[in-house]
């Protein structure tokens, strides 16, 4: 995690690590959003679905930033073009490598369709087995 990462992201990473057994990663059932109340407005939980990801929990700050309730929608339903491709790549990297993925866009990398500067951390979560079945995340909006 870079030093420039917002405290919300470092707090989420610490929480996620605290739930994992050595050499493993946490299950979705281990995540209790109410145990991290300061992160609730910024939190995301997504289910892995074939070649897509569906929002199951979305904090109010994230909903407000994206113009409404996005719970229940998938990435392919919400995004398109370059933004969709990059976002899917980041999520598949998290799933495929079973590792946290930090993203920060800048004024130089944003797409004209999405002028929202943010930092995002996504974290893999296991289901009943050892496969990644969902992703937890947190966002910090910079501008």
Describe this structure in words.
- The protein is of the alpha+beta class.
- 28% of the residues lie in helices and 26% in strands.
- The chain contains 4 helices and 5 strands; from the N terminus they run H-E-E-H-H-H-E-E-E.
- Strands 2-1-5-4-3 form a 5-stranded antiparallel β-sheet.
- Strand 4 and strand 5 form a beta hairpin.
- It is globular and about 40 Å long.
What's the short version?
This protein is α+β, with helices and mostly antiparallel strands.
Proportion of β residues? 25-35%
- Average the pLDDT over all residues and give the rounded result: 89
Shape: globular
Helical/strand content category: alpha+beta
How are the strands ordered across the major sheet?
A: 2-1-5-4-3
Which sheet architecture does the biggest sheet show?
5 strands, antiparallel
Distance between the termini: 21 Å
Helix share, percent: 25-40%
Defining traits:
alpha+beta, 143 residues, 26% strand, globular, 5 strands, single chain, 4 helices, five-stranded antiparallel beta sheet
Helix and strand layout, with pairings?
Elements lengths: L6 H13 L23 E7 L2 E7 L1 H6 L9 H4 L2 H17 L3 E4 L13 E9 L5 E10 L2
Antiparallel strand pairs: 1-2, 1-5, 3-4, 4-5
